[in-house]
């Protein structure tokens, strides 16, 4: 039954039958050998070794089992024991070609390992990596070779490659807490705090009392909590609280620059979003200096420049960001909006007409409007020319107030479109019509009525 199931590729069922066969006849060397074949088909070479050893113990001249065991030992980097098996096969069968080839490989592997270790000691890390490439090709299940190559990559600053080498060693070596700790620290130093937390938890799962792992876990956990809560505050538009969290991040981890860089980027974003213009420009510029290719810092500084009515500089930041990511639609739309605003700034600017900032609230806009409306009321002027000029100014002030106190029209204007410009209206100029009756003061003692053609 085991043979039939193995031939059909039903490995788990085949293994179950071979377990029963071994229990039923524990002195049959072939049963152990066949069960080892199932383990190997399942990728469980460690489990196959005891069965091959038992088969050889029961039948010392079983050359197939010796060859198979030698091949596994070679792949595990155990060259001394592998060579003993190949030599035993050659002693019984001098012409065995496979044993001759594998013995040569084992000797070649010994030479490569020695050279790689010597190169590492001399700090010739690139050369060591080249040699270890050959070692791992001959012994892919040897954790020591991968661990040594990971150390070389760490010295070379190639942390992602070190991670790729260390991950398999957590399976190749039992209770490899040291690898989990090192993986966690590598991810942490790359700014990948979530993956760092996953790896350090694996270490503690093996031994919850491991002191180095627990100490690192506390640090990663604290930092992760601060970072996650800061992002939640940003989603909820609670920007002041998010800034506090990111400032805490920089205190929690002052030595790993990637977290300080990330914190400055996100604080820049929060300041820009909360319209704290001067602070945003200062901090975004500082963040840009330490991370000049960061498109999000450039985007947020551009938005702060827009709030500060520095449209040319906003366009420049968006252009620079697009050089790094030309396919980003948000940057494309932002640049188009900044260009529109730059063009409009050379025409009619409702914020300038009322003398308010772009982040002014409705109350501030109405206050500015009332003051200017009273100042430029046509009844305050006697001469014909002065009255005409005052009427023109008064209409501009009224238009500015109407646009900036209407959320929909203000949004259009902030996006670079003049909602009162007939060219921007759909349907060929059927745009906003001025009211025939105009009451500039909705409350108070001033009541004026004007009729405009």
Automatic annotation (TrEMBL):
Gene3D superfamilies reported for this sequence: DnaJ domain (1.10.287.110), Tetratricopeptide repeat domain (1.25.40.10)
Keywords on record: Coiled coil, Endoplasmic reticulum, Repeat, Signal, TPR repeat
GO cellular component: endoplasmic reticulum lumen
Record-linked InterPro entries: DnaJ_C3_Co-chaperones, DnaJ_domain, J_dom_sf, TPR-like_helical_dom_sf, TPR_rpt
SMART domains in alphabetical order: DnaJ, TPR
Compartments, as annotated in UniProt: Endoplasmic reticulum lumen
Principal localisation: endoplasmic reticulum
An MF annotation (GO) of this entry: misfolded protein binding
Top-level taxon of the source organism: Eukaryota
Keyword Metal-binding tagged: no
Coiled coil feature spans: 96-126, 321-348
TPR repeat extents: 29-62, 63-96
Domain J, residue spans: 349-417
Stated name of the protein: DnaJ (Hsp40) homolog, subfamily C, member 3b
Organism in which the protein naturally occurs: Latimeria chalumnae
């Amino acid at each position: 039954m085991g043979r039939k199931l193995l031939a059909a590729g039903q490995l788990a069922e085949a293994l179950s039958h071979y377990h029963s066969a071994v229990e039923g006849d524990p002195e049959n060397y072939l049963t152990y050998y066949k069960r080892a074949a199932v383990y190997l088909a399942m990728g469980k070479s460690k489990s196959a070794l005891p069965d091959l050893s038992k088969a050889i113990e029961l039948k010392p001249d079983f050359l197939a089992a010796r060859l198979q065991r030698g091949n596994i030992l070679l792949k595990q980097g155990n060259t001394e024991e592998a060579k003993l098996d190949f030599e035993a096969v050659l002693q019984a069968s001098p012409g065995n070609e496979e044993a001759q080839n594998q013995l040569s490989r084992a000797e070649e592997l010994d030479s490569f390992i020695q050279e790689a270790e010597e190169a590492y000691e001399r700090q010739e890390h690139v050369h060591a990596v080249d040699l270890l490439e050959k070692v791992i090709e001959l012994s892919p299940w040897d954790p020591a070779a991968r661990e040594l190559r990971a150390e070389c990559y760490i010295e070379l600053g190639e942390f992602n490659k070190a991670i790729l080498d260390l991950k398999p060693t957590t399976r190749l070596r039992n209770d490899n807490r040291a690898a989990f700790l090192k993986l966690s620290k590598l991810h942490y130093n790359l700014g990948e705090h979530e993956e760092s937390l996953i790896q350090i938890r694996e270490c503690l799962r093996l031994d919850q009392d491991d002191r180095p792992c627990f100490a690192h876990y506390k640090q990663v956990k604290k930092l992760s909590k601060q970072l996650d809560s800061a992002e939640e505050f940003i989603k909820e538009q609670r920007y002041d609280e998010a800034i506090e969290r990111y400032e805490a991040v920089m205190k929690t981890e002052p030595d790993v620059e990637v977290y300080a860089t990330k914190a400055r980027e996100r604080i820049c974003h929060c300041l820009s979003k909360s319209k704290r213009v001067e602070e945003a420009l200062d901090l975004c510029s500082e963040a840009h200096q330490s991370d000049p290719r960061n498109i999000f810092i450039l985007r947020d500084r551009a938005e702060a420049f827009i709030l500060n009515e520095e449209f040319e500089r906003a366009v420049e930041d968006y252009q620079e960001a697009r050089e790094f990511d030309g396919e980003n639609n948000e940057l494309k739309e932002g640049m188009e909006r900044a260009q529109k605003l730059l063009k409009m700034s050379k025409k009619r600017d409702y914020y300038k007409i009322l003398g308010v900032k772009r982040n002014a609230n409705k109350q501030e806009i109405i206050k500015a409007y009332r003051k200017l409306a009273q100042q430029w009321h046509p009844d305050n002027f006697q001469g014909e020319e002065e009255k005409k000029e005052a009427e023109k100014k008064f209409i501009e002030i009224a238009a500015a107030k109407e646009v900036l106190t209407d959320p929909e029209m203000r949004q259009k204007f902030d996006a670079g479109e003049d909602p009162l410009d007939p060219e921007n209206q759909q349907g060929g100029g059927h745009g906003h019509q001025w009211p025939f009756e105009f009451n500039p003061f909705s409350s108070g003692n001033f009541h004026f009525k004007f009729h405009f053609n």
